[in-house]
């Protein structure tokens, strides 16, 4: 189902990279060349820590190059819900981390001259029901009261200033959020890693992870090995069965996207006048935006495990796009693709270190375009702090991974998930 994305089709030229052959030595080996792994390597190399990144396909081939390019504030849970779950102090720290994640991406793109169409135009959370707008208003009050953070409520009568649609009942605007071309950011971040002295091997899937007699990590691929002092697994929803415990603590959920043909500039601008990233409040949400070349990129939750129903899913997503924007009824769909989103049992990101010495970060629940770069920086900081014998403090830090009950990525549970999600879509 992984068809060509609009981001891959319109990406900047990328340099060829070799696959791993023979034995290579470094301080830290990172598995996964998405935003998390590349950011980890980038920040390690900036501190003179020799790093090798192994990627089973190509840079950005997973979720990092396939998402909607929406760099959003916050988390899947509302901040008021996180106050109840984590406490006010931790929730405040988590909000600041979210804001820091966007600022970090902005600074990395500027410092390294990454051409990825980064822009801060904010996001709109569009209310699918009148009751959802009331919930957004309550969240606005909580953000102002508990976090001294301001968002703007848009009533339905004022919505045409944001969206040319009758599908929604208002919304909430956060001006801090940003957007970018995700594949170009991944490619630029990879070049920044290499410019700092790091090495990236593509088409080099890790086959096994062992420890040698000196307690060094040995990661084997088909044609070579990497021997390192530290290991980082940054494969998120594409973890497969590489690490048994991590595999049992993340649920990969498929999300699908379509992109129209290039639209007349006037039409594209009229549909989303302020050029914001948009997502709605349906349980099976839609998310969409204008692309830099005047297409509408429109996404939703695919919830499929096979190819038989892929065509139907894309047709349904196109029908959803036309419901939101009737003017796109005759617009040709030029790109259709899918990607995997990683969820943990708490639907919050995990970061930490296992007893076997593995460093990890994953489970962004749809907010990885923003959070993963920061999590890579935090992974690098954790490794350096350990080397200096320092402690660390992070509300997303988890000391022990607990397998999700009755779940494995190869079990029948995954096959049944699509029926469960269809039911959720029906009642939402």
From TrEMBL:
Instruction: Report keywords, A-Z.
Output: Oxidoreductase
| Protein's recorded name | FAD-binding oxidoreductase
Matches recorded under SUPFAM superfamilies:
FAD/NAD(P)-binding domain
InterPro entries assigned to the protein according to its UniProt record, in alphabetical order: FAD-dep_OxRdtase, FAD/NAD-bd_sf
One annotated GO molecular function: oxidoreductase activity
> Can you give the residue ranges of the FAD dependent oxidoreductase domain?
27-381
Q: Which Pfam families match?
A: DAO
- Listed EC numbers: 1.-.-.-
Classify the source by domain of life.
Answer: Bacteria
């Amino acid at each position: 189902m992984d068809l060509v994305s609009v981001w891959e089709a319109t990406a900047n030229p990328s340099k060829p990279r070799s696959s791993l052959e023979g034995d290579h030595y470094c301080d830290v080996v990172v598995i996964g060349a998405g935003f998390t792994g590349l950011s980890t390597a980038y920040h390690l190399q900036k501190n003179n820590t020799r790093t090798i990144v192994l990627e089973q396909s190509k840079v950005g081939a997973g979720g990092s190059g396939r998402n909607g390019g929406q760099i959003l504030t916050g988390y899947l849970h509302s901040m008021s819900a996180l106050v109840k779950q984590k406490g006010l102090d931790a929730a405040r720290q988590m909000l600041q981390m979210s804001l820091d994640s966007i600022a970090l991406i902005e600074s990395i793109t500027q410092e390294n001259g990454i051409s990825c169409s980064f822009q801060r135009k904010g996001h709109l959370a569009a209310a699918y029901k009148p009751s959802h707008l009331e919930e957004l208003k309550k969240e606005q009050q909580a953000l102002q009261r508990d976090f001294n953070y301001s968002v703007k409520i848009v009533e339905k009568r004022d919505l045409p200033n944001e969206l040319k649609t009758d599908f929604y009942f208002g919304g909430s605007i956060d001006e801090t959020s940003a957007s970018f071309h995700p594949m170009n950011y991944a490619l630029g971040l990879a070049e920044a890693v290499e410019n700092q002295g790091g090495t990236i091997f593509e088409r080099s899937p890790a086959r096994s992870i062992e420890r040698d007699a000196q307690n060094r990590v040995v990661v084997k691929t088909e044609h070579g090995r990497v021997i390192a002092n530290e290991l980082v697994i940054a494969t998120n929803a594409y973890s497969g069965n590489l690490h048994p415990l991590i595999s049992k603590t993340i649920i990969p959920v498929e999300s699908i996207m379509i992109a129209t043909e290039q639209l007349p500039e006037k039409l594209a601008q009229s549909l989303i006048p302020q050029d914001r990233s948009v997502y709605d409040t349906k349980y099976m949400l839609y998310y969409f935006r204008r692309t830099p070349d005047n297409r509408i990129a429109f996404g939703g939750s695919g919830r499929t495990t096979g190819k038989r129903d892929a065509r139907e899913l894309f047709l349904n997503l196109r029908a959803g796009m036309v419901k939101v924007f009737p003017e796109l009824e005759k617009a040709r769909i030029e790109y259709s693709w899918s990607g995997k989103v990683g969820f943990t049992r708490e639907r919050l990101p995990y970061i930490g270190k296992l007893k076997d010495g593995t460093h990890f970060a994953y489970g962004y629940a749809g907010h990885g375009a923003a959070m993963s770069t920061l999590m890579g920086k935090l992974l690098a900081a954790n490794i350096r702090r350990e080397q200096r014998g320092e402690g660390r403090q992070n509300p997303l830090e988890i000391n022990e991974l607990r397998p999700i009950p009755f779940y494995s990525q190869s079990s029948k549970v995954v096959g049944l998930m699509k029926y469960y999600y269809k039911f959720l879509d029906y009642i939402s």
